[in-house]
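Hey, can you fold this one?
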Amino acid sequence: MPTRRPASVAFLWHLHQPWYADPRSGRMILPWTRLHALKDYLDMSAVLDGHPGVRVTFNLVPSLLAQLRLYADGQAVDSLLELARVPAAELTLDQRIRLLGEGFRCHWPRMLEPFARYRELLARRGADPAEGAARWTDAELRDLQVWAHLAWCGTWLRRTDPVVGSLLRKARGFTEDDRECLLAALDTALASVLPRYAAAAREGRIELATSPYYHPILPLLCRYEDARVAMPGVRLPPGAEAIPEDAATQLRRGRALCAELLGREPVGLWPSEGSVSDAALALAEAAGFQWAATDEQILFRSLRPASPSAFAQPYRHGSLALFFRHQRASDKIGFDYAGWDAPHAVADLIGLLERAAQASDQPHPVVSVILDGENCWETYKENGWEFLDRLYGELARHPWLRPVTFSEHLAETPPAAELPHVFPGSWINHDFYVWAGHREDQRAWELLFRTRRALVAGQARLADEDRAAAWEHLYIAEGSDWYWWYGDDRNSGDDATWDRLFRDRLRAVYEALGQTPPAELDEPIAGLAAPSPVSLPVAPFTPVLDGRETGFFEWRAAGRLEGRGAAGAMTRDLETVLRQVRYGFDDTDAHLALELDPSAGDGDLRVRLEWRHADGQATLELDLGAAARPRRGSLAGTAAGEARVAVGKLIELSLPRDALPAAAGQSVDLTVMVYRGAELVDRWPARGAFDLPLPDERDWLREWMV
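Sure. Predicted structure:
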């Protein structure tokens, strides 16, 4: 029998866009903030107007709010908007090609295929926007300028805006006046988004929550090593450090911007990607938040074991109340129900909510439904309007499920249970793999930490305005979205653009400091792989350091590195100076043998070797000039030591294993660079670094050569 206990359903719709502005021009590189505002943010607010008894929570990310303000004030422009503002007859060939590429970027089944004229234009374009662009007529281009925006008008605009409605009915043969009227109507609609949400919050129809300003993963800022709690073997980026002061700034500034633009400071927090840790939640509490939310898997791992009755309730963590997202209900809205008809989807969801409430032993349970409030609607009929309208209506009539805000539930039913420790993780697989698990992620974090250290060291020389601008660039680079798109598990279709924008932000920090940005910021991170050795050492050995291969077996047990091929394809035109790199170990030392191409000469060559690990780095530079052929070389970096070197047909060197910034059983990054004077002429690998495992005794037993 259904319970008659009252139960709350707390919806949190997360509205988020990253910072799209180019650090030099300020122009928005991608149009998604503007387009999602026209389609989703207006619809999500407007559909509630028909259900005055339903209360929900909207989580508005500050970086989204700041961009909406820029658009509303006429200070923001993106590429698609620029293309739409040009009269069709005046479009250059380059603009035509760009329009044919950008004018169809939408979910085709729901946003393009229902419209005959839009389908015709897509068929006319074909697969290659550049092919035949010059043959498009002005009328065709103008129709595309209009349809590229009509497709992104949400249900509310289509039903209520007279300009949008008339152009949808007209469908083709648009005039320049049509184009200009549409853009003006959309500007007006865009400017209404923030006032709508502010008014709804003021009237008590919604609650406003927020996230850290640029949406960083707070636990990774607070204590990056927490990534290893759920991912014990994950590689930490060299130079990783705890920077909780940045996390605190992002939280504090986020609340302040909400107060400025929406008239009130939120008391609720959806930490970016639901990512939590004890340190991150302590900062949220210090910033003035009263409640926060994350995924139920975090609760499961924090309690362990946890009974089903443990979930439909908030918990105390310090003075914060913590809510836990019902994973199945939330994910079914986000990923499943778009393919269902609305009545069956809503009936299924309400059944899930009822069962979750019934499983609780609390006198007044709460089921938290938390998910993205924008992207999923593209796959729904009518942009999700029918689904949401029916869902809100059914809940308003439900005899014992009440749709409330999180603060309303807390006012009626404060948390009864305490949770002194939370498992550090996010809403995705209760870990941080998406943002810290790939070599690309780790390289991006390494560059971020290095840039921040340069800023801390040099900021005292800057004027206040320049110092603030430099820190702003860094805070933007801390946002989660850069790392979301790095790695092979996500593809934005704009990966190269994301990568460039991230590195441009770090470059801007150095430029604000009056420093030349490091050359490594010119190298793409996207697509970076970690080349592994072609072969591993198979036994310990100790070579004779005499600059030549003393005997057949001297380097026979060595491992071998390969600087070219699929893993290390050259990204620039360099010479072929290095021919072979071999390496190995004995109980006390690490050994390398570098063979250079005899035709390269050695009159002014210099070899630089870098070993890097999360615990530090070691660097060795060898000047190969005839008058300075080294016998020893000093290691620089976090580990002290000295290398023994011999130069002849081979460059042979040995250095203490203790001087390497990693322990036996771990891996260390190795890069070999050859310079002629100040010019880099060869690099192994061409990008990134070799992933070099340091063996322990068990490795030798396992791999012993027979």
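The first strand starts at residue 7 and ends at 15. Let me know if you want another pass with a different chain boundary.
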